[in-house]
Structures are given as C-alpha cells and as structure tokens.
Amino acid sequence: MARSPRDYDESDVRIRPNKRGSRPRSKDRPAHLDAVPGMVTAVDRGRYTVLMGTDDDERVVLAMRARELGRKGIVVGDDVALVGDVSGSPDALARIVRVEPRRTLLRRTADDTDPVERVIVANADQLVVVSALANPEPRPRLIDRCLVAAYDAGMSPLLALTKADLADPGPFLSSYAPLEVPAVVTATRGPAGTDGLDGLRDALRGRVSVLVGHSGVGKSTLVNALVPDAYRATGVVNDVTGRGRHTSTSAVALRLPGGDGWVIDTPGIRSFGLAHVEPERIITHFPDLEAGTDNCPRGCSHDEEECALDAWVAEGHAGPAGPSRLESLRRLLRARTPEKGD
Ligand SMILES: Nc1nc2c(ncn2[C@@H]2O[C@H](COP(=O)(O)OP(=O)(O)OP(=O)(O)O)[C@@H](O)[C@H]2O)c(=O)[nH]1
Ligand SMILES: [Zn+2]
C-alpha cells in the first residue's frame, strides 16, 4: 500500500550509511546533519525523483519535501539532502530536508509583466535552444528571448538547429554569426551519416544542458536519439511508436550514455517571459549590439530617437540579423515598460 506523507515523522528516520559512513542519529541531532546527498531528476505533483549514491550503490529514490523546508521550491537539477527511507525500494518515500545552494537558476515568467517566476531548472550550465530550420519556421523573437534567459542565468547558450533535411541551414547560421553563439545542425530524417548527432554529443559532453524549444521542433526526437532508453529508465511512459513522451509539465533530467553529462528535457514552450530580468541589464544580454551603444546619450533607454543603435545597425555592424536583433531588443524593452505600450 502506498504510504501517505503523514506516515513519516522524526521517529521514522532510518539512516543508511553514506560514503563517509554516517552515524545513527541521536535524539537531539537535527535530521539535516545525517542526511545523504542526491540530485532531483524529475518532479511530479509534490513527489521528487532523486538519484542517489554512486556506481554500484546508485539508485533512484522517491521523496517528498520535509515540512521544515517551508515553501522553498525544489526543481529538477537541485542537489538535495535526504533522510528517511532512501533504499529506493518501490514503496519507499524519503524526505528532502535541504536544498543545496544553486550554481545557476533558469527561470521564466508566463509573460513579461507576470510577477510569478517559474523556475525551470537548477544547476545547469548550458541552455540548448532547439529550433527547426523549417516546419515550424524558426522564431527569432523566441530564440532571442531564450538567449537573454541563458545569459541572465549565467548559462552558456547553444543553438541546435534541427530538420536540416528540410531547409538549408546556411542563411540562418550566417544571420546569427555575429552573436558568436555556438550552433549545431541536425537532421534526424536525413540520409545516413548526415544526422549531425555527433556534433551535438560533443557539445553536450561533460555538461548539464537544458533543452528548450517551441513545440514540434524535434526536441523529443533529439533526446531519444541521445539517450535511447531514457524514458524507460526514468519510468516515463513510452507510447506505442516508441517515441518518448513525458506527460508531466515539468523538466526531466536524463544522463547521457557513458555518464558523461546530462540533458534536461523540458516541455515545448510558446513564449519565454522575462519579467525577472532587469530592463537595464537587457542590453548586456545582446552582446552583438552592446558595442553599438557607445555613442548613445547618457542614460539612453535604447528605445528612443537619440539611440545610436539605429545608425550603427544600419551601417551593418551587427551583420544581417542586426535589424531583427534590434527589433527583438526593443520589443523586450517595451514589454518590460508596459506604460509605453507595444
Ligand atoms: N524532417 C524531419 N523531421 C523531424 C526531424 N526531427 C524531428 N522531426 C519530426 O518533427 C515532428 C516533431 O518532433 P518531436 O521530436 O515530437 O518535437 P518536439 O519538439 O519534442 O515537440 P513537443 O513534444 O510538442 O514539444 C515529428 O513528426 C518528428 O518526426 C528532422 O530532423 N527532420
Ligand atoms: Zn541607446
């Protein structure tokens, strides 16, 4: 029978030896001191899937949050400390008593004025912006927003351009070249030897990478190619076609074969709200445009007549994507100052 959270209290805490060999907890010793470490790989309705242990000892443990955590959010990628039944047996439920300090935090908001932040993932170091070259067409505004989110989160961006069998990646690549964002091109339906997956694997090696993209760009296809038994391993349901699908509305962390890095799959997005990014900082997240602000008047909002960016972009300094990038920048600035309207 499944146990309810109520079944657990301080007296139920059983301590497993960890690598350093933990001592049994005495009555006055707080639970968090004897807790063992793990990483959150999935979140579903208040239940957290946590990977614990190393090598032979590795196991997946289901956990709930401990009351003492209060309202603190726990997201995929979080390093946590657990107490309770960390055996990983089917009916076991451990408790997360601590969330370790995060190295990075990828956030978005529903729209640009929404004060409610959705934390997508913690501790990832690379944001892979997945965009199809065709069907659906690339959405530069969304891509630009994802890039801003990556820079703001302190993550390095990577463009993954899919469906190269349907459209020549050349024009897109050259228009984005001034940004100096690394890009990989894939074609999982192309002729043999042209799928580009090795390039993607190289770019993912040894890193924790979050994949984001609009629905239909081929993200699941990539994840399934990179981690063939991913969804089986995480207990996520495969449909009859064998195509991995997770029905949850949150992210899932999957280890790359060989243990050399992680990919974190996220549900398809339609927008990427940036209400959490300070308007003054937005320009610093457009590295291809920032140099053009040297001649701006003091305190320029970069969305006013005197702004030097228009002339600079018109002179071609930001390359072929310059006008579109400037438009992205201005849209973002306007969205963050709603009184100006858009
Ligand atoms: N021609 C072509 N089709 C592809 C390629 N990659 C994926 N597709 C197809 O594009 C469609 C969408 O692919 P998915 O992998 O489900 O896309 P997704 O981004 O995960 O979409 P959501 O699950 O809605 O977020 C499917 O029909 C795939 O077979 C590709 O490289 N070339
Ligand atoms: Zn300006």
UniProtKB/TrEMBL annotation:
Its cofactor is Zn(2+). Residues 1-15 have a biased composition (Basic and acidic residues). GO terms for cellular component: cytoplasm. Keywords: Cytoplasm, GTP-binding, Hydrolase, Metal-binding, Nucleotide-binding, Ribosome biogenesis, RNA-binding, rRNA-binding, Zinc. Residues 113-272 form the CP-type G domain. InterPro entries: G_CP_dom, P-loop_NTPase, Ribosome_biogen_GTPase_RsgA, RsgA_GTPase_dom. GO terms for molecular function: GTP binding; GTPase activity; metal ion binding; rRNA binding. Residues 1-32 are annotated as: Disordered. CDD domains: YjeQ_EngC. One of its GO terms (biological process) is ribosomal small subunit biogenesis. It holds the Pfam family RsgA_GTPase. GTP binds at residues 162-165, 213-221. Residues 122-270 form the EngC GTPase domain. Zn(2+) binds at residues 296, 300, 302, 307. Its main location: cytoplasm. Its EC number is 3.6.1.-. Monomer. Associates with 30S ribosomal subunit, binds 16S rRNA. PANTHER family: SMALL RIBOSOMAL SUBUNIT BIOGENESIS GTPASE RSGA, SMALL RIBOSOMAL SUBUNIT BIOGENESIS GTPASE RSGA 1, MITOCHONDRIAL-RELATED. This is Small ribosomal subunit biogenesis GTPase RsgA. It comes from Knoellia flava. The lineage of its organism: Bacteria, Bacillati, Actinomycetota, Actinomycetes, Micrococcales.
